[in-house]
Amino acid sequence: MNSRFLITGAIFGLAAVILGAFAAHGLKSSISAESLNSFETGVRFQMYHAFLLLIIGGVNSSALKRINWIFYLLCSGVIFFSGSIYLLSTGELTGIDFKSFALVTPLGGSLLILGWLLLLLDFIKLKKK
């Protein structure tokens, strides 16, 4: 078991539930439907990756060669992807123009893709052993 993955997954999951509830009850009447949908996309991706971190943390990950890279790519990907979506979605509510953060979203998505790719490559190598 890898407590770093488990703790981070639990924190991401907890935050996703809180942010999802906040979106459903606190933001619903304050931002546009399109912004609310975007916010919920950020929550959904955060929760997906919280589950992934919990799964990886619950198995023997010592055979994974790139475990540190996977961890940092997934964590930074969630923060950049979901975090930038949260900021962009609530810009009309806060009155702050976060459009300069728009390029962070695809960067975060790319980091998530790289994390999944490294995980896949490690799994393929496990099969060969």
TrEMBL record:
<feature type="transmembrane region" description="Helical">
    <location>
        <begin position="47"/>
        <end position="64"/>
    </location>
</feature>
<keyword id="KW-0472">Membrane</keyword>
<protein>
    <submittedName>
        <fullName>DUF423 domain-containing protein</fullName>
    </submittedName>
</protein>
<dbReference type="GO" id="GO:0005886">
    <property type="term" value="C:plasma membrane"/>
</dbReference>
<feature type="transmembrane region" description="Helical">
    <location>
        <begin position="69"/>
        <end position="89"/>
    </location>
</feature>
<keyword id="KW-0812">Transmembrane</keyword>
<dbReference type="Pfam" id="PF04241">
    <property type="entry name" value="DUF423"/>
</dbReference>
<keyword id="KW-1133">Transmembrane helix</keyword>
<comment type="similarity">
    <text>Belongs to the UPF0382 family.</text>
</comment>
<dbReference type="InterPro" id="IPR006696">
    <property type="entry name" value="DUF423"/>
</dbReference>
<feature type="transmembrane region" description="Helical">
    <location>
        <begin position="101"/>
        <end position="124"/>
    </location>
</feature>
